[in-house]
């Protein structure tokens, strides 16, 4: 069931990128899609019965405890930070573009800048 919601989120973002004409809406759609991809990655990586990889004295003495792999968590955190920085960069570009074209419609901008 969760997979269906995650796939629906990814598809909503994808169709928003394809069909929305406003550039701000395209950026929001891209954020929705990246959130869906990250949620899908977390959904695949999560498993029951694994412990958090934080060592304590009680866990140091216990043998046979399975720990979750911390690498996917690090990859997801990196993806979130990179996604946020790309969004910020695109929003700055749109702010500069909005000075000349306040409508921010992709078709209008292409029509005005085509020789």
TrEMBL record:
Location of the protein in the cell: Cell membrane
Q: Which residues cross the membrane?
A: 74-94
Keyword check for Cell membrane, yes or no.
yes
Q: Keywords on this record?
A: Cell membrane, Membrane, Transmembrane, Transmembrane helix
According to the UniProt entry, where is the signal peptide? none
Top-level taxon of the source organism: Bacteria
Family as reported in the entry's similarity comment: Belongs to the CPA3 antiporters (TC 2.A.63) subunit C family.
| Protein name according to UniProt | Cation:proton antiporter subunit C
Q: Which organism is it from?
A: Thermoleptolyngbya sichuanensis A183
List the taxonomic lineage. Answer: Bacteria, Bacillati, Cyanobacteriota, Cyanophyceae, Oculatellales
């Amino acid at each position: 069931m969760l997979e269906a919601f995650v796939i629906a989120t990814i598809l909503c973002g994808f169709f928003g990128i394809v069909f929305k004409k406003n550039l701000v809406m395209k950026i929001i759609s891209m954020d929705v899609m990246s959130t869906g991809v990250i949620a899908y990655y977390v959904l695949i990586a999560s498993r029951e019965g694994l412990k958090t990889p934080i060592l304590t004295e009680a866990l140091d003495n216990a043998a046979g405890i399975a720990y979750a792999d911390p690498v996917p968590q690090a990859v997801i955190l990196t993806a979130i930070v990179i996604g946020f920085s790309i969004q910020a960069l695109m929003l700055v570009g749109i702010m500069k573009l909005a000075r000349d074209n306040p409508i921010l419609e992709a078709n209008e901008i292409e029509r005005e800048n085509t020789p």
